[in-house]
Amino acid sequence: MTDPTTERSPKARFDSLSGSVDERLYSQMTLIRQFEERLLQLFEGGELFGTTHCCIGQEADAVGILNHLDERDIVFSNHRCHGHFLVYGDRPELLMAEMMGKAGGLVGGRGGSQHICYHGFHSNGVQGGIVPNAVGMAMAEKLKGTGGMAVVFLGDGTLGQGVVYEALNLASLWSAPVLFVIEDNQWAQSTPVEKELAGDMVARGRAFGIRSGEITSTDASEIYAHFADIVASVRETGRPRFEVVHTYRLCHHSKSDDKRPREQVEARRVGDPVPLLARRLDPSVVARLDAEAGRRVTEAEEHARSLPFPDPSTLEDSLVSAR
Amino acid sequence: MSRLDESERELNVLGSLNGALHSILGDDDRVVVLGEDLLDPYGGAFKVTRGLSDAYPDRVLTTPISEAGFTGVAVGMAMRGLRPVVEIMFGDFLMLAADQLLNHASKYTWMYEGKVDVPLVVRTPMGGRRGYGPTHSQSIEKHFIGMPGLVVVAPSVFHDPGALLRTAVVDDDRPVLFVENKLMYARPLRRIQGGRVGDMAARVDDARYPTVTLSYDDFRDADVTLVAYGGMAELAARAAERLLLDDEVVCEIVLPSSLNPLDLTPVRQSLARSGRLVVCEEAAPIASWGSEMIARVSAEAFDLLEAAPVKVAARNLPIANTRDLERAILPQESDIVAAVTRAIGSHTTPVHLAG
Do A136 and B107 touch (CB under 8 A)? Predict the structure, then answer.
């Protein structure tokens, strides 16, 4: 059962959790990590169909940023959206059902891993195109006067798309309350950042008159503190912000396609955000939070397994919304 | 500058569309208009948006030259309850926003299992005959009619363009590509009154985006069914008049305003009288709307056909700037007359010679 007061508000939910900030951030990160590890096992066992893009190594971004959003806000994520969704929605069973292609999944099996929607959360699978969508959503909230803002996630690779710069220009011209988060994980699929990106990432935002910054961290607490003011300033000023998080993807791009130098990946494990935070917590608390998350993932899997596959007779449903 | 004056608005397609935008913005504060060079006193490249920014400065947004960007912004606005109307200055530039229509606007509602609507209208002038050359004269709507989830509407002078636009903006929760043939802007509306327009009997079906059918013989009999849309409607009507006067050939003209989805019913009804199909369009001929029309009629109404369908379209070339070459590339009234003559001359049953 979901709590209606926290269902649409990551901030309210985060505030309602017990424990220190570090413990709460850890509880969310271990859920994301165990959820994705389970997904990969299910793929290996041939139980999932299609593809998936895990965020193993980047969990600190999701928990550090999205816990500042409330029920008025909008998130637009990309193909690598599981962590973002689990923080926003906290409904692993709905995402697992979607991954299994089940009726009762987030979007009834129509979208799968990278095309999901839940209240103010959306994701889509084409790089760049979601960025103007997020700007438009932020503009709509501004015109309606709701006080809501949007967060859109893109990666270093997506900075290659021209439409991103059209969207930055429009967001600045029109003062859209939108936060552009660039998760720089150093790799665009199999292409290292030095082969896909010229110049300076942060300067890209500044060039459009958008207040821009960066943080190099996989420490969830640090990122959480860093983004508190940034989210608040977007809301208060009604102006966009552009923030680069330099992180690292410890897993493959999608399923088992990793050809990156092993020694590079291994060297980055020292920054793995999950043990990084765990080392600061009481081991018994870590064990409890790990077990709790593991139980939730197992329940999500069992729930998803129990659901039927969608009936092809429903294919023509939802050509317009059910409103 | 104020809106177009009353007489202008009554008379032509431009006035009909401009008047509709004024009234839609006035009636519904969810409506936002975006596009390049829309602001008064310029009022848009073809003046369809003239007077709007003076009257509604907060909801008429002039944009940078960023078709993908501002179409994408409008998609996001639509997802959050606004009803944006995007103007793409020339239809040719629509390809710059194609990803937004294909992978975003047309996907979200179904892909998200009905959790969002995208009530977006993208209006754009298409078509040639004004000497604008290869990249400002095309009719490329055919590239958008095969996108599931995207409605494609094209009014003609025999429709009420402003009423169709109002429907698309206010009453349709789906994304709509609204195609305005640019030669049509200055053309007077051909209003249907008492079931007639000029010398023709007229029928309008009750679809959301109606099909108009015109007959020179009060729907009793016809030799050929001419199917056309947008700017080709008047050309088809003129060809039909000439065929009647010169050759006593009776044409029925079927003018859908919804190119996708496409309701074949009015075409079937006319073919039941004529048995012969000529499809007219201004686009290049390969994989076109006319191709789809002929394919569907052949598959779904083969029993009604007494002759092979004939297509009138542009030559399979870019559109030249200079007048004589542009004329030779784009379909003309004489091409429709020739196509009708060909349809009449081709029989599926052997012709019995006298003697």
Answer: no
Q: Give the residue from B96, B111, B150 with the most A CB atoms within 10 Å of its CB, the best one to mutate.
A: B111
Judge whether A123 lies within some domain: yes
Q: How many domains does chain A have?
A: 1
Same fold, B6-186 and B196-345: yes
CA A153 from centre of chain: 7
Adjacency order of strands within the sheet including B251-255 = B196-197, B200-204, B212-215, B251-255, B224-227, B277-280, B310-312
Q: In angstroms, what separates the C-alpha of B275 from chain A's closest C-alpha?
A: 33
**Beta carbons of A317 and B64 less than 8 Å apart:** no
A102 sits in which H/E element: none
Can you give the residue ranges of every domain in chain B? 6-186, 196-345
Contact B113 A108 (CB under 8 A): yes
Listing DSSP states for A129-154 in one string gives THHHHHHHHHHHHHHHT----EEEEE
ipTM over 0.85: yes
* Min distance B163 CA to chain A CA atoms (Å): 22
User: Is A13 part of any domain?
Assistant: no
Instruction: Bin A315: left if φ > 0, else alpha if -120 < ψ < 50, else beta.
Output: alpha
Domain assignment present for residue A1? The answer is no
Q: Does A86 touch chain B (CB under 8 A)?
A: no
Q: Along the 355 residues of chain B, how does pLDDT read in single tens digits?
A: 445 555 544 589 999 999 999 999 999 999 999 999 999 999 999 999 999 999 999 999 999 999 999 999 999 999 999 999 999 999 999 999 999 999 999 999 999 999 999 999 999 999 999 999 999 999 999 999 999 999 999 999 999 999 999 999 999 999 999 999 999 999 999 999 999 999 999 999 999 999 999 999 999 999 999 999 999 999 999 999 999 999 999 999 999 999 999 999 999 999 999 999 999 999 999 999 999 999 999 999 999 999 999 999 999 999 999 999 999 999 999 999 999 999 999 654 444 444 3
Contact (Cβ atoms closer than 8 angstroms) between residue A118 and residue A91: yes
The CATH number given to whatever domain includes residue A205 is 3.40.50.970
Residue (of B275, B268, B239) closest to B254 by Cα position: B268
Distance of residue B264 Cα from the nearest chain A Cα, in angstroms: 20
The answer to whether the CB atoms of B80 and A136 lie below 8 A apart is yes
CATH number at B6-186: 3.40.50.970
**B61 close contact with A: CB closer than 8 A:** yes
Which residues in chain A have their CB less than 8 angstroms from residue B110's CB? 110, 318-319
Query: By residue range, what is the domain housing residue A125?
Result: 19-303
Q: Which residues in chain A have Cβ-Cβ distances shorter than 8 Å to B71?
A: 132
Say if A207 is an interface residue toward chain B (CB within 8 Å): no
| A322 Cβ under 8 Å from any chain B Cβ | yes
From the list A14, A252, A74, A289, the residue with the least C-alpha distance to B81 is A74
A153 found inside a domain: yes
CATH of domain B196-345: 3.40.50.920
B73·A319 Cβ contact <8 A: no
